[in-house]
Specification:
Helix content: 40-55%
Strand content: 15-25%
Shape: globular
Number of helices: 9
Order of helices and strands: HHHEEHEHEHEEEHEHEEEH
Number of strands: 11
């Protein structure tokens, strides 16, 4: 039987890409993280994590283990909640950045509602900046948003992702012509990143599509009318990263962060926070 403590540590390494950051998330030392991963590798007689000077990456066996670990830990949480008899109750006004709709988040929310039927979950989907304002104003209890990496120490960081230029495979840009930009309506973190990066590089640009949601961005990119700034891990299988091929400027990374309203009931917030942290939400489905 696989030890849930070892699985939780392994998932933290998988999601942060760092033994040190995994330790910070779990409140344990970096040597303890390394020890847990080694014990798990010994238990399954497989190498799960490839370590080199450039960082940490999962092996093929590690990718498989991450999926098993999420399933096992979710089953443990379900069993604990069932047999403890301590049902979480209350109201939870939850806000999520709209591009997270193409991750595991909808499945996690479905499972959360099944596990905690006495929590009245209210979902708001919007851009990150408006959601942050609403949680600070007390209009939401918990938000799951993107912020420029390292921008704020507020909240709980779930993962870090690199923003890249995304387009339809085969798209070409004419030399000297403005970059055709597909963007969310302002205010938008990805829109501002795109404009700032292009202007810093001395590139001209023009908006070919203004949209309010991620489906609009993806539809426009699939139509071939321009390029968009998008989280690397969330690029759908039919679209590609074109940053280097088209000679477009580098972009910052983003943190996916859970930020809670400190004035409201903690129990529902902690329950959903733990569900998101344990399931590795930030990857495309």
């Amino acid at each position: 039987m696989l030890d849930p403590v070892l699985l939780q540590t392994f998932l933290a390494v998988a999601e942060t890409g760092s033994f040190t950051q995994a330790g910070t998330r779990l409140g344990i030392s970096q040597p303890t993280v390394s020890q847990h991963v080694r014990r798990l590798e010994t238990a399954v007689a497989r190498t799960l994590v490839a370590r080199d000077t450039r960082g940490v990456a999962l092996t093929d066996n590690g990718d498989a283990m991450a999926g098993f670990a999420r399933t096992i830990l979710a089953a443990h949480a379900t069993a604990d909640a069932y047999f403890s008899g301590a049902a979480t109750r209350g109201r939870l006004r939850f806000g999520a950045a709209d591009d997270l709709a193409i991750t595991q988040l909808p499945r996690i929310l479905r499972d959360f509602r099944r596990l905690h039927p006495q929590v009245n979950l209210e979902l708001t989907v919007n851009q990150s900046a408006p959601l942050l304002r609403r949680v600070h104003a007390g209009q939401l209890d918990l938000v799951f948003i993107k912020q420029t990496a390292g921008e704020s120490a507020e909240g709980t960081r779930v993962a870090t992702d690199q923003m890249v230029w995304m387009a339809q495979d085969g798209i070409a840009l004419e030399p000297g012509e403005p970059v055709p930009l597909i963007a969310y309506q302002a205010p938008s973190i990805s829109r501002q990143m795109a404009i700032d990066a292009l202007e810093a590089a001395g590139r001209t640009w023009r908006i070919t599509c203004n949209t309010r949601d991620v489906n609009g961005v993806l539809a426009a990119v699939r139509a071939g009318i321009g390029v968009a700034v998008f989280p690397h891990s969330l690029i759908p299988a039919d679209l590609v990263k074109v940053s280097q091929r088209l000679g477009l400027p580098d972009l910052p990374a983003v943190d996916y962060v859970l930020i809670a309203n400190p004035t409201v009931q903690r129990e529902p917030i902690d329950a959903l926070t733990n569900a998101i942290l344990s399931r590795g939400v930030v990857r495309a489905v």
